[in-house]
Structures are given as C-alpha cells and as structure tokens.
Amino acid sequence: MRHVFISYTKKNKSIADQLCSMLERNGLTCWIAPRDIPPGYPWAETIVTAIGQSDVFITLVSAAAYRSAHMARELQGADASGVPILPIRVDEAPLQGDFQYFLGNSQWLDLQDRTPDQYENDAADAVRSLHARSVAAADKLSAEPAVSSIPSGTRARSTRRLGASDRPITDELRNTITTLVTVALKREKALAGFDLADSRTLFFGFRFLLYVSLASALLHIPAWSAQHIDFIHPAFMPSVVAEALIEQIALCFVLYLAITLFGATVDPQQLFCGFCLLSAYQLMSDVCLVPVQVRAIAAQNPDVEQFLQRIVAMGDQAPLGDLLVLLVAGTASVGLRIVPVLALFKAFHVTDQIGRRRAALSLVVAIALWSVSVFVFSQPFLATLYSTYRH
Questions:
Q1: pTM (whole model) above 0.85
Q2: Which of 16, 256, 302, 380 is the one with CA 20 to 30 A from 351?
Q3: What contacts 143, CB < 8 A, 6 or more positions away?
Q4: In this structure, is residue 277 part of a structural domain?
Q5: Is 258 in contact with 366 (CB distance < 8 Å)?
C-alpha cells in the first residue's frame, strides 16, 4: 500500500492527528496536510497529487466538515481518481451536500463515544479491508476479457479527458454545450470534472473560449446593423473575435501575475485552462446586456455608451423603464463578470495560500491592470474598427 490520505477540517485536527498516529503505529503510511506538504511546493497541486497516489481515502465526517469547501473538493477528487473512500463519523450530524451525494451508500466507521484505544484496531482493519477489496476488484476486472471497445465519449473515470473521436463535430458540440451548462451550474466545482493538466483539455478550453467570444460577438449584430457597420465584411468578425480573445488572455495573464506577485503558487497551464472553461460567464454577462441594446436601438442610440450618455443627460426626465433595464442588466452583467474570477481563486485555493487580505489586494491589482489594458488598447482598437467598417 502506498499511503492513506486523511481529509479533515481544522476543527477536527486533533482527531485526524490521533488517527494518523495510530494507523502509522499499525504499519500503514499516512499522508496528511500540512505535515506532508514540502516547503515551497504548491499547496493545491500537492494535495491533488497525493489523493491520486493514495490507495485509501479517509474523510472525517462531521458538522464542521460539511461547511468545508476544501474537504468537498478533496472528496470529489478521490471519487474522480477512483480511490476507495472510508468515511469516519466523529459526530451525529446527518449527511449533507456533496457528502450525502458521494457517501450516501458507503459503510461507516463510527468513532462516537469511543476512545482511541477502543477504535484503533477497527480503524486499521477497515483500511486494510477496503484496500484489499479494491485490489481484488481491480485484479478481477483486469482478468476479464474485453468484449467491446469503449464507445467514443465514454469516460473510464470522472475526470474528463477530451481526445480524438470518429465524430469530431458532434462530440465537439456536445462537449461545448455540456461544459457551458456545467460551469454555469457548478462554477469552480465544475473544474474538478476536468483534467486541467492534460494538454487535450487545454486545447479544448482554448476552443471553448473562442466559441464564447464568437457567440458574444454575434449578440452585437443588431447594434452593429443599427449603426450601419458592415459586419458581414470578411475581415470584420475575425477582427472582433481576435480582439475579444486577446482581451480575455490579457485578463488571465494579469490574474496570474497578481496572485503570484502576492505569494500564491499556481500552475499557469491549469489556471489558463480553468479560466477558459469559466469564460462561460462572459457569454452570460453579454446576454444580460441584450435588453440594454434593444432599448438603445429603440431610442435611436444604438451604441450603448451613447445610450448611457443620453440617460445621464436627461436626468430626472429619463424613462423609468430605461433606468430599470440599465440597473438590473448592468448589475447582473457586472456580477457575472466577477463570478469566474472568484471561482478561479476558490478552485486554486488562492485565499488559503496567501490569506483573504492579500487575495483581495491581488484581485484589485489584477482588475486595475486589466482595466488599463482595455482603455489603452481594446477600446481604441474597437473604435477604429467600427469607424473603418461603418457605411
């Protein structure tokens, strides 16, 4: 057996340390944070690697554990890696959330009202038994002859590895739609279903960002038409999409620069891959602004900035409907722009590595740098582009 991974929340640290000591007294090697994280190593990446290399995953289940997003992610990682899971109950709190989903049918080891001496042998025996059953099942599976190949798109594990297929267009469309829906519903939790270190996932993430940028550009067609912009010109749409891609890549770059500047350690490929997948929120943000574009066109101010200037100039005489649309749509759009950035911080444990204050400062620095790049490069480029292709 390689090692037993012990997942716990800080409020149960004393129990976790006791359990680790007793298992190691019984000849079982344990991996437990922060003891086994080498100095200077990436915190999140080391934990993910340790879970993947473990033979048994122990999770200390308690009311405090249900409030720990880190334990939920570790549990999802163990399930995705196919590691046998041993839930150990330390209080009477019923299962909730992700724990209920992953552990609802699992056999428990209950430590309530028992001293360490009373449950030491039971804990060691449970780990050995779970590992032995897992090895036996794996041996049986490997001994069975294969009756058919795995169909395209089937996953042997929960982690998605996006590769070649005999139906590339259909699979690409399905993967894109599935990713859009999954990210919209689960935010950073959706990233646990992808192998962010796989180059195929990276290429899919970039394509996904491209599709999002193209879809966002298509939402502007009514406004471009009202502004008499020749959007069907062969060079116009590629220029708009390229600008959007560069703008998003710049945002990812300044995010990486900001969080590493304040001391966080993040793998750049995985961060960029996660950023691309979370770009689904960019499309949702632009959808929220569609009602504003409709109002702007109706008011004969098809440019949204001109429409805003008109509303400000009218002051108290501005139509109430226009004001409500601007307020609701603008608030929703800004909120959806912030969501993916916060989701990235959670997914890569930035706050846990550098603390809330430094994480907040890094976020402010990133937004400031990105805003400068937008006003200095993106806005002048788009203004010139629109002017060039206006009839």
A1: no
A2: 16
A3: none
A4: yes
A5: yes
Residue 379 has a pLDDT of 84
Q: Give domain status of residue 275, yes or no.
A: yes
45-65 tens-digit pLDDT: 889 999 999 999 999 999 889
What token pair was written down for 196?
């962010």
Closest to 16 measured CA to CA, from 123, 121, 122, 94:
123
pLDDT digits (tens, 9 = 90+) for 136-156: 766 655 555 544 333 333 333
The answer to whether residues 212 and 358 belong to one domain is yes
Count CB neighbours of 305 within 10 A.
10
Over 275-335, what HEC string results?
HHHCCHHHHHHHHHCHHHHHHHHHCCCCCHHHHHHHHHHHHHHCCHHHHHHHHHHHHHHHH
254: Cα within 13 Å, side-chain hemisphere: 19
CB atoms within 10 A of CB 348: 26
Residue 146 is classified by DSSP as P
Q: Which residues contact 162 (CB under 8 A, 6 or more apart)?
A: 175, 198, 200, 201, 203, 204
Strand order of the β-sheet with 4-7 is 30-31, 4-7, 56-61, 85-89, 109-110
Instruction: Return the bridge partners of 190, or none.
Output: none
| Mean pLDDT computed over 146-175 | 52
Integer Cα distance of 252 and 266 in angstroms: 12
* CATH number, position 52: 3.40.50.10140
Q: How many domains does the chain have?
A: 2
What is the extent of the structural domain holding 103? 4-143
- The whole-angstrom separation of Cα 284 and Cα 272 is 20
Chain centre to alpha carbon of residue 87: 25
Write out pLDDT tens, residues 67-126.
Answer: 888 899 999 999 888 899 999 998 888 888 888 888 877 778 888 878 888 888 889 999
